[in-house]
Write a structure and sequence with these properties.
- By secondary structure, this protein is an alpha/beta fold.
- It is about 45% helix and about 25% strand.
- It contains twelve helices and ten strands.
- Strands 1, 2, 3, 4, 5, 6, 7, 8, 9 and 10 form a ten-stranded mixed sheet that branches.
- Strand 6, helix 8 and strand 7 form a beta-alpha-beta unit.
- Helix 8 crosses helix 10, helix 9 crosses helix 11 and helix 11 packs antiparallel against helix 12.
- The longest helix has 18 residues.
């Protein structure tokens, strides 16, 4: 799976938290039990931003399992959560955190969610939850969803995965009966200002790059939210989506600069934009007056009762 630096994740966290659709988050809170500890699995957790964004809106007792393929990011998540909490203790490898009125138990798992993709997928799904997750979707996802949680969540993950992976993933989540919520899947829309002559060419090349294999097969890119909605709907889930764009201004110059550099690097890999035109676009987007609106979508899927 493609890796992300802790610097990039730290820069984007405030923008991510501001962009989440508040209505879907409120609906999520109402969909989960309030009279007991709820179990939550956060996939591709990075440094724990999704936990920090969601936990204030959930119940008073939460048990989080943070899953990422990168042990360094998991270590950074542990450090960041200890600093974020009002009070913190450890129980073996488990963090016991208090934040506001909530008490959270947090464990960490270094797992490869792409493990096992391929010819065994269909056979694994047909074998039932226990055996199927282990042999078909790989030990990564099988371990992540065992024991079955109340909520499976992720942020900025599903535009990286393939349609085949989404189908298997949704099948696995549906077998647990968990609620599903994801935020900040890229939707393919962008508006940069001031306008630049290369905007259209750069964006078209970037969209082409979105489909490149990121470790899970041909990536869905902007098609991720529609694919998730279709698959959860097939399993009888009630699905709601909402827009969650980043609105980035001059006050977020460091994030804008890292964003344009990442976009330019992706575009260069495609060979679809001339080097001079891309260099001029990249230089222009590094100026202090640059603003950007980057489209994302959130999705909530509630199982049939």
């Amino acid at each position: 799976m493609t890796g992300f630096s802790s610097e990039w994740l730290a820069l984007r966290e405030p923008a991510d938290h501001a962009a989440r659709d508040a209505g879907l988050v409120a609906d999520l809170g109402r969909a989960l039990p309030a009279d007991r500890e709820i179990g939550i699995v956060d996939l591709g957790c990075g440094t724990g931003s999704n936990l920090r964004g969601l936990s204030p809106h959930l119940g008073p007792r939460q048990s989080w399992r943070l899953v990422d393929h990168d042990p360094a990011l998991l270590a950074a998540a542990r450090t960041a959560l200890l600093a974020w909490a009002d009070r913190a203790a450890t129980d073996g490898e488990t963090l016991v955190l208090e934040k506001g009125a909530a008490r959270l138990r947090v464990t960490f798992a270094a797992l490869d969610l792409a493990a096992g993709l391929g010819s065994n997928l269909g056979a694994g799904l047909g074998a039932g939850l226990g055996a199927g997750l282990g042999s078909g979707l790989g030990s990564g996802l099988g371990a992540a969803l065992d024991p079955a949680p109340d909520l499976v969540t992720a942020a900025a993950l599903f535009d990286l995965v393939s349609a085949v992976w989404v189908a298997g993933f949704v099948e696995a989540v549906a077998q647990t009966g968990a609620v599903f919520y994801t935020a900040l899947s890229y939707d393919g829309t962008e508006t940069w200002a001031p306008p630049h002559a290369a905007d259209a060419a750069v964006h078209a090349a970037f969209l082409a790059h979105q489909g490149i294999d990121k470790g899970f097969g041909a990536a869905l890119g902007p098609g991720a939210t529609a694919a998730l909605a279709q698959e959860f709907g097939r399993h009888g889930y009630g699905v709601a989506t909402a827009s969650s764009p980043w609105d980035l201004g001059p006050g977020q110059g460091a994030l804008v600069r890292m964003l344009k550099d990442g976009k330019a690097a992706a575009v260069a890999q495609t060979g679809r934009v001339g080097a001079d035109a891309l260099a001029d676009w990249t230089a222009a987007r590094g100026r202090p007056e640059t603003t950007a609106r980057i489209g994302h979508a959130d999705l909530l899927a509630i199982p049939p009762r």
